[in-house]
Structure formats: structure tokens, C-alpha cells
């Protein structure tokens, strides 16, 4: 079958590609991460039970998993409408997982080209393979659902900026710390809230790999940033701020309680249920005015607070100057590492080790 150019999207990258002829490994921790990645490869075709039936018209997550079920508008829907809404909203979210995984596949490949150290290249190659398996697995699951939504414009913008960055550190920050921090939180929450055994198992396997991807950011980025000239570090820190700020603007602030631009894919979800776009937006504004906040349910992870911001702070990607920018943008510089560290530990072991999250969540 010929390539379908209508669905393709071409970008140009200013990235430098680096050979490395010194095969000495100096970063033992990175070598260990590479070794773990090799040992813990799984195969969606072999390791998941695809005979499990998935009914696309039925919700596969609990409707209490996000604040939307508390909206008065949502409560006025019939039970059939609520089921359709939850089924399509979940398909919308899973579609973002699928498209995001393709983005990660490409950023990991770009890291393989660009990182200047041999062990960095080995590690990035394993991440590239991890992401290929993730794309395959989510695509197979979405085919069972038979509902796919387009990538959200803000997610596309963040991944495009990352793919088109001029330094591999920006790719590692944009993907391994920010987008994968966001994904790690979403995957964790999906695993907890889904009633579908296939999706739970799939997400568990993906989650184990993703925590290694976030750990790579910690091991490699922090060391490289600390050795950089201050001006270059500021350039990287500026990129980190811009990526975070793009996401915060799109999702209604770091805590999700502010105004946001409607996502065109999500508006299609509303169309499926017959909810008027204006009614929905008014309902959100009224709920916000009445003090309803997008609280993260107990035991679930808040990606901004628990993963993305602490990862950036730990790596040294937030400078005194950008702290000022974050403050102006109303984005707290959270730096509590307990959740991210517990998830990274879980990613290095077997699947029986569900991360123990601190009580604060
Ligand atoms: Fe992935
Ligand atoms: Fe990943």
C-alpha cells in the first residue's frame, strides 16, 4: 500500500547529530538503566490477553475519576447519555495516549542521534523500542474501541516544539520530564480507575517503562546541565518554562481550575452526547465561580505538582530567573520529590511493586 501523505505531517529539525567513538562507559547508572530496559521488554502481542471483550459503548473508567461528573450539567444527563459521555471522553484520552506515544517514539529516536555519549545512545535506543511497543499496544486497544480522536492542538504544539528544538537537552526536557511526567500521572490514574482488565494490564506495562524514561531525565540531564555555561543553561531553562506554560495555558492553569480553550476533539465528544458547547462551557464557568475545583481524587497523581515540576527542579532546569517567570504565570514551582521517586523505583523492578504514594496525595 502506498504511503498516505494526506495523514502525514512533515517537520524540519535543526538538531545536530553526533557520532561517539569513545565506547567507554562512565555513567554506571545510565548503563544500569539500559540493562533494565533490555531485560524488561515486553510484547503486547504475547503478553496481553486480546481475547478480552471491550464494549465501546460502555464506560471503561469510573465516572467519578474527574471533576466533570460533579458538574450540574452532567448530573442532568440521562444515564445513557452519561455512559456515552464517559465512553467517548475516555476514547478521547486514550487517543491522546496513542498520539503522544508516537511523539515519544520520534523524540527518543532523535535523542539516539543527538546525545554525545555512547551509554546515552544505548539507553535512548531502548526507549525508542519501548515507545514503538507503546504505540502498537495503544493502537491495538483503540482498534477494539473503534473510536479515535485527533491529537489535541496543545499536545501537538508541545511535541512539535520538542521535536524541532535545537539541543538534545530540550528534547529530553520537553519529552522525558514534561510530556512523560504528564503521561506518567495519566497512566497511573487510568490504571487505578479503569474497569477493563486488558487496559489495566496494558497501562501497567507501559507505566513501568515510562518511569524509566522519566528517570533518564534525572540521571543524564541533571549532570549535563550542571556542567553547562550559565547562558546556555538559561536557554534550556527558558525552553522548560515555555513548554510548561503552553500546557498550563491549555488545561486551565497548573491546577486545572482556570479558563481554558475548548479542545476541538473534546467538543466532538460533547456532540456525541448532544451537549451544546455553550452550555458545557457555561457549566464549567459557573462551577468554577461556585468554588468547585478540579481536585485530584485521593490516591491519584497530580502531574504538575508531583511529577513535572519536581523533575525540572531536581534536574536544575529551573533557574532563579525562570522562577520569576513561573511566579508571573501563576505556576507554583513544586519540588516535593516523594511521588516521582517512588514511581521511578517501581519502574526498575517487577510489576508487583505498585508505587506507594505519600499520604499527601
Ligand atoms: Fe511511552
Ligand atoms: Fe516514554
The run of helices and strands is HHHHHHHHHHHHHH
Oligomer: single chain
Q: Number of DSSP helices?
A: 14
Cα separation of the termini: 49 Å
Sheet of most strands = none
The coarse overall form would be globular
Bound molecules: fe (ii) ion
Query: Which percent range fits the helix content?
Result: 55-70%
Radius of gyration: 20 Å
Strand content: under 5%
What would you call the structural class?
Answer: mainly alpha
If you average the pLDDT, what whole number results?
A: 89
Number of strands: 0
Spans where pLDDT lies below 50 across 5 or more residues: 349-356
Which properties best describe this structure?
globular, binds fe (ii) ion, single chain, mainly alpha, 361 residues, 14 helices
Can you walk through the features of this model?
The protein is mainly α. It is built from 14 helices and no strands. It has helices spanning 28-39, 44-47, 72-75, 79-114, 118-145, 153-163, 168-193, 197-226, 230-250, 264-273, 277-289, 303-315, 320-328, 338-347. Helix 4 (79-114) runs parallel beside helix 6 (153-163), helix 7 (168-193) packs antiparallel against helix 8 (197-226) and helix 7 (168-193) runs parallel beside helix 9. Mean pLDDT is 89; it is low at 349-356. The structure holds fe (ii) ion (2 copies). Residues 104, 131, 180, 210, 213 line the site of one fe (ii) ion.
Set out the fold topology.
Elements: H1 28-39, H2 44-47, H3 72-75, H4 79-114, H5 118-145, H6 153-163, H7 168-193, H8 197-226, H9 230-250, H10 264-273, H11 277-289, H12 303-315, H13 320-328, H14 338-347
The structure holds fe (ii) ion (FE2) (2 copies).
Amino acid at each position: 500500500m502506498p504511503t498516505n501523505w494526506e495523514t502525514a505531517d512533515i517537520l524540519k529539525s535543526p538538531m545536530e547529530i553526533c557520532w561517539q567513538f569513545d565506547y567507554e562507559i562512565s555513567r554506571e547508572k545510565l548503563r544500569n538503566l539500559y540493562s533494565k530496559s533490555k531485560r524488561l521488554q515486553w510484547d503486547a502481542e504475547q503478553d496481553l490477553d486480546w481475547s478480552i471483550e471491550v464494549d465501546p459503548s460502555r464506560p471503561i473508567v469510573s465516572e467519578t475519576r474527574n471533576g466533570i461528573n460533579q458538574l450540574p450539567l452532567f448530573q442532568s444527563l440521562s444515564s445513557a447519555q452519561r455512559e456515552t459521555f464517559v465512553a467517548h471522553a475516555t476514547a478521547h484520552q486514550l487517543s491522546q495516549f496513542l498520539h503522544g506515544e508516537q511523539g515519544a517514539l520520534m523524540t527518543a529516536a532523535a535523542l539516539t542521534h543527538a546525545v554525545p555519549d555512547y551509554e546515552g545512545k544505548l539507553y535512548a535506543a531502548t526507549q525508542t523500542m519501548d515507545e514503538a511497543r507503546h504505540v502498537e499496544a495503544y493502537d491495538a486497544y483503540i482498534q477494539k474501541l473503534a473510536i479515535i480522536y485527533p491529537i489535541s492542538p496543545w499536545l501537538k504544539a508541545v511535541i512539535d516544539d520538542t521535536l524541532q528544538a535545537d539541543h538534545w537537552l530540550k528534547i529530553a526536557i520537553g519529552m522525558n520530564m514534561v510530556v512523560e511526567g504528564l503521561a506518567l500521572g495519566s497512566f497511573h490514574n487510568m490504571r487505578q480507575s479503569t474497569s477493563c482488565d486488558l487496559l489495566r494490564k496494558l497501562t501497567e506495562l507501559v507505566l513501568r517503562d515510562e518511569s524509566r524514561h522519566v528517570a533518564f531525565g534525572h540521571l543524564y540531564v541533571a549532570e549535563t546541565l550542571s556542567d553547562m555555561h550559565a547562558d546556555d543553561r538559561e536557554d534550556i531553562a527558558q525552553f522548560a518554562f515555555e513548554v510548561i506554560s503552553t500546557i498550563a495555558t491549555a488545561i486551565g492553569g497548573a491546577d486545572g481550575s482556570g479558563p481554558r480553550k475548548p479542545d476541538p476533539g473534546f467538543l466532538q465528544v460533547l456532540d456525541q452526547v448532544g451537549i451544546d458547547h455553550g452550555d458545557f462551557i457555561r457549566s464549567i464557568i459557573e462551577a468554577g465561580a461556585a468554588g468547585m475545583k478540579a481536585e485530584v481524587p485521593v490516591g491519584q497523581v497530580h502531574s504538575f505538582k508531583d511529577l513535572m515540576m519536581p523533575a525540572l527542579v531536581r534536574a536544575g532546569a529551573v533557574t532563579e530567573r525562570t522562577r520569576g517567570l513561573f511566579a508571573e504565570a501563576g505556576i507554583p514551582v513544586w519540588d516535593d520529590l516523594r511521588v516521582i521517586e517512588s514511581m521511578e523505583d517501581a519502574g526498575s523492578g517487577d510489576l508487583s511493586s505498585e508505587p506507594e504514594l505519600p499520604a499527601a496525595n
